[in-house]
Sequence to fold (164 residues):
Amino acid sequence: MPMDYVLAIITGLSASNAKEITLKARGQAITTAVDAAEITRNRFLKDLKVSKIAIGTEEMPAREGENRSRMVSTIEIVLTKE
Amino acid sequence: MPMDYVLAIITGLSASNAKEITLKARGQAITTAVDAAEITRNRFLKDLKVSKIAIGTEEMPAREGENRSRMVSTIEIVLTKE
Fold:
């Protein structure tokens, strides 16, 4: 599953000629975002640096059948070309 | 499960009178580490700041029945008292 994101990072950076890309994830997908950042940097784009990592909390609305909202952790990882 | 870590953070900081504490996690536990940091800061120790977040990759030795090592993502979160 991280490989889908790795591909999105690589194509996103090359198509737009952007200098940076931000990965955002919530809950269990946090690990996937970290995996995607690490695999991209270690195997594909070795000049990519992690320029910022921030964590936070978001309130998610109650799902059907639940009676209250849930707090979910988030991560934001910014990757920048040298 | 994050609550075990939250308790460890709170007791660790108060017992040792330390000014900072570092959470380290690998693989799926990355999300738990982020949850623990967020819950501690939002609910219990509101003067705690995230002073550093770093991600990395570690090689884990092959487990029994596997024939090669695996790469696993890591996170390190440093929480500092103001």
